Amino acid sequence: MRRHEDIKFADVNNDIVRSLVETGPRYYVTLAIAVLITIACFFFPWFYQLYYGIGAAGMNHPTVWGTYLASFIFWIGLSHSGTLLSCVLHITNSEWRKAMYRSAEAMTLFSLMVAAMMVMVHVGRPWFIHWALPYPNQMELWPNFRSPLMFDVMAITTYLTGSSIFIYMGSIPDFAAVRDRTTGWRHHMYVLLSLGWRGTDTEWHRLGWAYTFLAVLIIPLAVSVHSIVSWDFAMSIVPSLHQTIFAPYFVVGAIYSGTAGIVTVMFVLRKYMNFEHYITKVHFDNLGKLLLALSLIWTYINVVEVFTGWYSNDSAELESLRYKLFGFYAPLYWEMILFCAVAPLLLISKRFRTSFVPMLILSIAINIGMYTERFLIVGTSLSRQYLPDSWGVYVPSLVEISILVGSIAMFCTLFLIFVKIFPSVSIYEVKETLPAPDEGKTQWQEATH
Amino acid sequence: MGVSIVPTLRVLKPAAMMVAVGFVGLLIGYFANAAFFPGTTPVQPIEFSHAVHAGDYEIPCLYCHTEARRSPSAGVPSVNKCMGCHAIVATDSPLIREVARYYENNEPIPWVKIHDLPDFVHFPHKRHVAAGLECQECHGPVETMDRVTRMAPNEMGQCLTCHRDSEVEHGIDCLTCHK
Amino acid sequence: MSLIDDFLARWREYRAPGYYEEFDYHWTMTVDLDRCTGCEACVTACQAENNTPIVGEEAIARGRHMQWMRIERYWEGEYPDVKLRAIPMFCQHCDAAPCETVCPVSATYHNQDGLNAQIYNRCIGTRSCAVYCPYEVRYFNYNNHHWDAPLEQQLNPDVSVREKGVMEKCTFCIQRIRQAKDAAKDDGRRRVQDGEVQPACVQTCPTEALVFGDRKDPESGVSQMLGNERAYTVLEELNTDPSVVYLKKVEADA
Amino acid sequence: MPNVDRRHFLKLVGAGGVGAGAGFMLSESRKHPVEHLVPYPVPPEEFSPGIATWYNSVCSMCSAGCGISVRTREGRAKKIEGNPAHPVSQGRLCALGQSGLQALYNPDRIAGPLVRAGRRGELEFDPTTWEESLAELANQLELMRTAGRGGGVALLSGGVRGHLASLLELFMGWLGSDRLLHYDFNHPATLYAANERFFGESELPYYDIENSRYVLSFGADFIGHWLSPVHHGLGFGRSRQARDGIRGRFVQIEPRMSLTGAAADEWIAASPGTEGILALGIARRIVDQGGYQGEDLDAWQAALDAYAPESVAEQTGVAADTVARLADSFAETQPGLAIGGGATGNHSNGVDALVAVNALNHLVGNIGVEGGVIFNPPPAFGPTASRQASLARMLELAEDARAGRIELLIVSNANPVFNLPEAAGFAEALAEIPQIVSLSSFLDETTAQADLILPSNTYLESWGDDTPAPGVGFRVGAVSQPVVEPLYDTRATGDIVLELAHRMGLDLAFPWPNMEEYLKYSWREVWSSGTPDPAIPDFDTFWTSVVRAGVWGDDTRAPSGEFAPGANVVEGIGVAAPEFAGAEGEYPFALHPYLSNALHDGRGANLPWMQELPDALTGVVYGTWVEVNPVTAEQLGVQEGDVVAIESPAGSIEAPVLVYPAIMPGVVAMPIGQGHEQYGRYAHEHGVNPINVLAAQTEPDTGALAWAATRVRLVPTGGREDLVKVSGEARELGREIVQIAAVGAGAGAGGAANARLNSIPITVVNT
Fold it and tell me: DSSP assignment of A61-95, as one string?
């Protein structure tokens, strides 16, 4: 097996173009399974729900929000680390970012798309969803700009646009590189995608400038997106949701689950796209450190939340807290604490951080825990509000669970298509980390040894 | 091979043309349907001519559609009302004989509704008649039509425009019209 | 320039509390808890008037009852010193309604009559208003509802039958208010007089616990009730400024 | 285009075609479906599409006789409200009354005459015609009548009053049968008997709750389903908060807190069946304290001698000082009112207990005064004698049936198979009757046994009249008119009876073509009995105005003056210890059945609104449950939703437990109303019928079913059945949702406001 420093520039091009062009039956089988699951578990139940009404899901009075919204926050959260992390690392010149950022950004994009689908699934009459967009009309009817949901529409649209431009712009040189090595329809496609990139100094200069500019722009945007998502909840007066800590809570949670998501994706890419020598222990080590830090912040905020409820001495807040800790959903709460606060403490060990399979298991566990967190935000608080006579219990229906599974499959489908169109490891930026043909060792090597 | 986009465009041209032609077809189909099968001029069970009654003979609208003055719904005249005149007038006409047949059988005439508002709209004819609106402002020049056709879409924009222009009190409050 | 001025003017208007500097009417209901027995005549009156669906046993078991008006029951104490306290709960038509701010399409808003309006055919069903409502009085149509023939012949033609995916709630019987205004105009009056309009629940309440009217009319029955020292609003600490005012239950020191 | 080849051209044509087709369909999908405007060929008078018409009528959902106004639009009934002019309802109406619309528009109504095809009870019926079935039935009746076997005809109806009752009486009289029975589970037979004995009045008195300052209720759920709940509700509200500085105080004495108990200021649990003893304990205290100064004081002292505080406390489980406190405050607060009913009246000592309650009113001078008991004048019209059937009378009927003395049974809107205990053996007795004819609108349990079903109209499609019982202290008559055309091929009960009479050749005795004419004929008498009014010159004007108003009568209560019970009445006062079916050792719990708030005695079970109306005290819908005290539940080791068998000497049923905080530990309560085997899609297969485990125990004086006198034991079955509830947690947790004020705070301020709001303008239009 080659070591990272042995890779030649030509190898990079070859490896990555190979990942696009050479497609084995294993890929097709995987893609077919993903597509089938998407159709069977996402679209069929959804169409049934469109026909029957939201009643196909388990929501009720008073828990009118359910897993669809939890999934929405989850996917938005998962979207966070990609572009945000990529931007932060780009600005701070972290070399280790370069092999992984492309797929991380793709993750952002696709989880945002899936999140947008979850909105469609969530609303009662998705065929009128365009009413939430501000467009001029004869009636002078506008959406309600005071609504946090409206902020959401704006923030997510902006974030999706920003992220799409960011990933696309970063890929242009790679498209050009691939364009020059492919034939047939692929060539034509990359001709269009590469926008006539020639690799002149001016082009590189402008790309670098624009790329950094966008990176700076996207960081506050990303932070704002999840802050705004949190406002959907925090701006309500539901006990245990109406809290000032919600914005940072959501942002940290988002980055946390997103980073864990990156670990999962890295593992899969490394294993199945043969990128072993691009995605190395270094990445896992660094991501592991990041995860540990995030898990500690996340735990801290959770503790703060408990104390906020406890110190409020308010019947409604206290009951919400009691219900979350010891009520019907308590097993889920403690599962979340185990997966997201206790288990990540293993990351203190470097040996753990640099072992691939344990990292994969942990990253998946964290995301299960984080999904649970989102579910609990919706489930525990809405079922225990101000009027005890209106308390209720919400249990997701089969349709909801199926759509959750289907949404994961949809994400996988999108990702599988992505890896065959986009060079999933940045060709030009990886080259920057390699020893130039005639020069000595790079920064990268210094950092790793 | 190269940077040039021209070969690619050449490849794409047939597909692009198909999309373009398909889209043009869509527009033609959409508007052709609206133009040739508008559904705004349905055939009525009896070829009643408003042009004759309201136009030539200048019978006021509210003579037959009396309810418009006092009820939310304008109502269509009962067969009884038709026979009020046609027991004497034009009794030989084949159309009138048909009306008379309905009357003798004590059957209602199943008129086809032309101006149909959705069920969630509250539109009181009474208020609009009381405000001095001419029927024609919404229904078009019915007195010139042999077979009545819907001239305006009777959609929300039309209501709002009028309510704004004529400064109806709270005229653009949703609850004024939506029930 | 005028465009910007116009925009700013509208913005200020928009930001004003309750959107309105001054209400035209300010419909208000008072509920005297010392009179209320919890007999639920109001619940059926509301259901009959407003085409509220019959949802079936299974739906209720799943927590999907739809009656706009419900009686909440709270037990106090233990046997034998036990008391039941009942309180009718329905849309409070808050002047600072949390539900109104959250609807992304403004399907729910405050109108000039102090009503918390719900426009069914504008609703896209995000259900966020129900989350934001602390009184839990918004009911969602989880599916289309069916009336076994000929039960549908009873449906009130003045009220829409709501379709799946739409939120609904108490309207203070807007159709009756509309009708009263219409009758007033027929009489050449601009304003509805006190007592001319009563929502179905108020109309039927056997103990006359409910009073409805215009708070802006100082002579109205409801204004007199508001002056009662027992008047309070539920969940006052949330500052929602409800238009439904309860009169405290009187309990003797038995 | 030079470079378009044939192949490509075809592709383009294809694309264009698909696009055009899609566009066409898109446009098509946006079109409105065709709707029709169908005017009346000849419109009815005063009809205007889009404008509601109100018709006044009388509610028949229970026996209170509230006046109603029905809103109709385009010939369909839309809403029932109380008739503001009617002194009983005064514009108000209860939940059950309002859902009368769902009886009218019930999908399970019988749409036309049916004749039995299969075996009895197999529900196989063939449609038949009115002509045929009436001819046959009339023929049969005429044969029986002429052969002198008319006595073999029995007519069993629900609670009917007014001229329909007179007509039935007349008809049965002509047949020569005295087997005309009205059976109503909720009929207060013991109250009638107690009033007859104590007051010498055959009519129920008017209980003036509105003007009372202290209401002491023994088991009477007067806001629930006792006598006239809507009117009592009005009284309750006005007594509470309509008088400046005066707030009526309500004390409820019953083993299980009812709706009235929940609304009362004080709820006192007395052991089941001992309420009368408690009343006498209170009476004794009043007499001892010198609260009674009548001439017959000695007689009273003698009669009450046995009810010393300690022994009363021991028997009733109510502390002696509570008895004293109740007595003192009842005597002090004038005017006050003691009323008794419900389980108190339907026990083995029911009549005695209610007499004891009446005695309380007498002792403190509350009879014939405002705010007390006011006697009613006799009804303006109606049958000559009460035909209300007690359990004993029904058992007699069953015995007659078994002995073959009944050849033909006509059942009209009564459901004894459901409403009598299984132990009464009525269902088996029905099998012995050769022919059963049902005039019911619905296929209930009794109608299911019928050989011929002649479905009657609902009350909203029929002519009728009514005299409310209890009245309101003055004469009231009300006319009920059809508000819609009959929906199906059904006929009004009165019209069926008249038609039968005509076909039997009794035209001379029954000269009226239909019920409407019969009413008009009868009301002439009512008209001539009144004081002449120059504004009403002739009968037609009178009739039109009565039909429009829906009600006729006086409007002031005449003071009834002094009252003194006879010496033998005072002597006879005394309440024995209650007797239960079932020994206490074997059956530790007294079963307390009660009428469900929504379903009444089961008649409301086919109305979906009523099925979905949460129980007023528990929030449960669609089911039967058994209420137990929390302590009892703990002892039995059961929780809410655990299914237990309720076993009595007469039978056993299973129902889930509901832990109810306001019930005595030795008592279990169950709502009546569910457990239908027939009666349509909404009624059947929900819950169980607790009437089935009642022993056929009667109150000895009246023979009424003592439905509160059965003991049961609870045996956990280990099963679970989650109750369908709309309520979550039933504790406030200190959130101050229902806030409490001290007595005296803000009293009375709303009275004027409400008085003004009472009169809404209603257009009353004649048909």
Answer: SS----HHHHHHHHHHHHHHHHHHHHHHHHHTT-G
Total-model pTM: 0.92
Residue A95's alpha-carbon distances to A101, A167, A433, in angstroms, are 11, 18, 7
Q: Rounded to 5 degrees, what angle do the CA atoms D72, D78, D80 make? A: 95
Note the pLDDT tens digit of each residue in D19-35. 888 888 888 887 777 88
Nearest CA in chain B to C116: B175
Tokens of C240: 């929602």
- Chain A residues within 8 A of C136 when measuring between CB atoms: 61-62, 385-387, 390
Bridge partners of C70, per DSSP, are C89
Task: Report the distance separating Cα C130 and Cα D653, nearest Å.
Answer: 41
- Which residue in this structure is represented by tokens 């009217």? C213
How is D663-717 classified by DSSP, letter by letter? B-TTEEEEEES--BSSS-TTTBTSS--GGGG----B-TTT--B-TT-EEEEEEEE
- Locate the chain D residue with the closest alpha carbon to A319: D733
Other residues' Cβ atoms within 10 Å of the Cβ of residue A220: 12
Which of B:103-122 have CB within 8 Å of C? 118-120, 122
**Interface touch D733/A319, C-beta < 8 Å:** yes
D284: how many CB neighbours lie within 10 A of its CB? 23
Cβ neighbours around D331 below 10 Å, total = 22
pLDDT of residue C16: 58
Backbone angles phi, psi at C250, to 5 degrees: -100, 130
**Edge-first strand listing for the sheet containing C210-214:** C210-214, C27-32, C244-247, C231-232
Q: What is the pLDDT of residues B144-170, one digit of tens each?
A: 998 888 887 778 888 898 998 888 888
One DSSP character per residue, D489-541 reads S-B-HHHHHHHHHHHTT-TTT---SSHHHHHHHHHHHHHHHSPP-TT--SHHH
A399 part of contact set with chain C, CB < 8 Å: no
Q: How does DSSP assign C59-100, residue by residue?
A: HHHTT----SSEEEEEEES-TTS-EEEEEEE-----TT-HHH
Q: Which two tokens stand for residue C185?
A: 């105009």
pLDDT level of residue D419 (50, 70, 90 thresholds): very high
Kindly give, in sequence order, each residue whose CB lies less than 8 Å from that of residue D559, ignoring residues fewer than 6 positions away: D368, D369, D374
Backbone angles phi, psi at D132, to 5 degrees: -65, -50
Angle at D146 between CA D141 and CA D148, to 5 degrees: 95
Residue D763: the pLDDT is 34
Q: Name the range with the highest mean pLDDT among A255-264, D380-389, D448-457.
A: D448-457
The answer to whether C160 contacts B120, with C-beta atoms less than 8 Å apart, is yes
- Predicted confidence (pLDDT) per residue in D603-651, tens digit: 999 999 999 999 999 999 999 999 999 999 999 999 999 999 999 999 9
CB-based contact, C146 to chain A, within 8 Å: no
Could you report the per-residue pLDDT of C85-141, keeping only the tens digit for each? 999 999 999 988 999 999 999 999 998 899 999 999 999 999 999 999 999 999 999
Answer yes or no: is pLDDT of D762 > 60.
no
CB contact under 8 A, D730 and A388: yes
Q: How far is D734 from chain A (nearest CA, A)?
A: 7
* First and final C-alpha spacing in chain C: 71
Partner residue facing D739 (CB), from C151, C153, C232: C232
Subunit contact A144:C65, Cβ cutoff 8 A:
no
Angle at B81 between CA B77 and CA B87, to 5 degrees: 145
Shortest Cα–Cα distance, B69 to chain D (Å): 11
Of residues D755 and A412, the one with the higher pLDDT is A412
Mutation pick from C83, C186, C234, C244 vs chain D, by most beta carbons of D within 10 Å, is: C83
Percentage of chain C lying above the pLDDT 70 cut: 95
